[in-house]
Specification:
Number of helices: 10
Strand order of the largest sheet: 3-2-1-4-5-6-7-8-9
Shape: globular
Order of helices and strands: EHEHEHEHEHHEHEEEHHH
Number of domains: 2
Largest sheet: 9 strands, mixed
Organism: Nonomuraea endophytica
CATH topology of the largest domain: Rossmann fold
Helix content: 40-55%
Distance between the termini: 36 Å
Keywords: Oxidoreductase
Radius of gyration: 19 Å
Structural class: alpha/beta
Protein name: NAD(P)-dependent dehydrogenase (Short-subunit alcohol dehydrogenase family)
Strand content: 15-25%
Family: Belongs to the short-chain dehydrogenases/reductases (SDR) family.
InterPro entries: KR_dom, NAD(P)-bd_dom_sf, Peroxisomal_Beta-Oxidation, SDR_fam
Length: 326
């Protein structure tokens, strides 16, 4: 049995890089995977429907279940169709992994409005759009009495949180926005049984990072390569699993090091000289000092609004979102 047996998981940007490794790993763990990727270049231009299809073929050849989606996350209706593809193909949707990104690197004085908008459209708006349509489905199922663990795993970047790089103002801004979106979405969607977390890779060798000095050098095939994007997949799988208790957390990953972020600060880490398994992470993550987003919000509001307890806070959130008090 795998840690994701029976889970239906939609992964955006799953044709290459981190998303591809997640799709292969999740399928090996028993998930039914919607492989979404329009097959564009790193700047978002072009398109190749065969990119997603190749990953699907690799999964099915290994005995797994997967279907391809070539819609763009920046397309509002395309994001809706991705969710519908999961429901039509596998009858349900348990997890969304928002991984799609493009980049157009230029200094702030030279970056065009179009370039800035396009990067945010894929990374930030795309994360919102896919999550929006999935969350609407989950809300409707919850209101109908269906109780199931649902999860969103967003993907940010060390470039937006810990290591902002010159010439990446749009990329950094969109990834920081994804991390902030994660916390708010966790507060809103918890009442529907949805957990929302974020994984923030740092120094992973993908098409987007090959221009960074030192990133193109691959290690020996038989050894653990801390820069290989496969190092991210077990962490994302742990967050996607039904036994994971976390919500509203941002976990930075660099090779075998997994750290928890408190805002833009690393607050504690785990390290292993090799790849993690989902079972190992489930046991060791308990050692990290997690911030509960509900407790933090209750503390922040207690002085101004007199809100002191989690139940009272949940009632306030439900009221803001038009849900009846429970």
């Amino acid at each position: 049995m795998g840690s994701l047996d029976g889970r239906v998981i939609l992964i955006t940007g799953a044709g290459r890089g981190i998303g591809r490794e997640e799709a292969l790993f999740f399928a090996a763990e028993g998930a039914k995977v919607v492989v979404n990727d329009p097959g564009v270049a790193i700047d978002g231009t072009g398109g190749d429907g065969g990119v997603a299809a190749e990953v699907v073929e690799e999964i099915t050849a290994a005995g797994g279940q997967a279907v391809a989606s070539t819609d763009s996350v920046a397309d509002w209706d395309g994001a809706r169709r991705m969710v519908e593809t999961a429901l039509r193909s596998f009858g349900d949707l348990h997890v969304v992994v928002n991984n799609a990104a493009i980049t157009r690197n230029a200094g702030l004085t030279d970056l065009t409005e179009r370039d800035f908008d396009d990067v945010l459209a894929v990374k930030l708006k795309g994360t919102f759009a896919v999550t929006h349509w999935a969350a609407r489905h989950w809300r409707d199922r919850f209101r109908a009495g269906v109780r199931a663990d649902r999860a969103v795993v967003n993907t940010a970047s060390g470039s937006g949180l810990l290591n902002p790089l010159p010439a990446q103002v749009s990329y950094a801004a969109s990834n920081a926005g994804v991390a902030a979106l994660t916390i708010v979405a966790a507060l809103e969607l918890g009442q529907y049984g949805v957990r929302v977390n974020c994984v923030s890779p740092s120094m992973a060798r993908t098409r987007l990072t090959l221009g960074v000095p030192g990133m193109s050098q691959e290690g020996p095939a038989a050894a653990f390569d801390p820069l290989h994007p496969a190092a991210i997949a077990p962490v994302a799988a742990y967050l996607a699993g039904p036994a994971c208790p976390l919500t509203g957390q941002v976990l930075s990953v660099r090779g075998g090091t997994v750290s928890v972020n408190h805002g833009w600060t690393l607050a504690g880490h785990l390290h292993k000289d090799g790849p993690w398994s989902v079972a190992e992470l489930a046991e060791k993550v308990k050692e990290l000092p997690m911030d509960d987003p509900f407790d933090k919000l209750a503390e922040a509001l207690s002085g101004a609004l007199g809100t002191t307890g989690r139940a009272e806070l949940q009632e306030m959130i439900s009221s803001l979102l038009g849900e009846p008090a429970r």
